[in-house]
Amino acid sequence: MEDPKPKIGRPKKIIWDERTRKELSGMGQIMVTEAEAASFFGVGINTLKRFFAEHPEARETFENGKNIGKISLRRLQLRLAEKNPAMAIFLGKNVLGQSDRVAHFGGGPEDGPIQYANMTEEEINARLEALLAPGAKDKGPSAGTKARGAGADGSAVREGKAGRGRKKAGGSAGVG
Known about the structure:
Layout: H1 18-29, H2 34-41, H3 45-54, H4 56-83, H5 85-94, H6 121-132, E1 149-150, E2 156-159, E3 165-167
Helix pairs in contact: 1-4, 2-3, 3-4, 4-5
């Protein structure tokens, strides 16, 4: 009896067996990229892709591992959300599609936005003068306080409504 023909070419670098299945599943669970998995096996990315094409069950094992990893991550995030408001907000926005909504009210018809695009320059100037006039409903973000200045010694001073200066850090009373 004749010996079978010897195989020609290089030996396979990745062989589909139980060990490879476990390794691919484990790498999927920690969500490694295909490039990282290829490095683990000591092959290039194209070789790994070719291996996945030749062995669809290998790709399926890798993807199932990734899904198991996502489940574990979600479970951990939900546990963290019980104690960490930031995590609860993150999950609400990214999983539930929630978002921050800011209501804007401002001086236009029925307290809606001011339609500057349809106003003449004179109308805009008149509106600005009305907003900046003493006793106006809204003077902007600094209503009720003056801007920060510097005390005689260079420390920051903030003046309140009564005009009494208070130094931020140490020292005597500021400018009044």
